[in-house]
Amino acid sequence: MPRLTIGLGAVLIVIGAISYIATSFASWTALIPAILGALILISGLIALKNQMVGVHIGLLLAVIGAAGTLMNVMQLPDLFAGTAERPAAVIASSITFVLLVIYVVMGVRSFISARRWKREQASVEA
Length: 126
Hints:
Layout: H1 2-22, H2 32-49, H3 51-73, H4 76-81, H5 87-125
Helix pairs in contact: 1-2, 1-5, 2-3, 3-5
């Protein structure tokens, strides 16, 4: 999970930079995925030293980020209809949302797997 966290952070930084450039540097809010990505990348680096703490921080940031991007994701029908006010924001937010949700699902599955493994190890030792 630490490497996945670092990779997700790097991808979000790229998405933020691309959306900022694509909007002709019009608004710093296009950099929100990059800011979120930097924080997740830092949590991934923390996870290299202390996996439990770093990944938990990354997952918390991902849940908060997914909740924050949900408003723009709800505008996908407007984007497909061609009436979206800020199409680049809707696209970047939707990609960010999907990546964050996938990361959270993978993180939860990883935690469940780790608990099962610990339980199995405890039963073998007993």
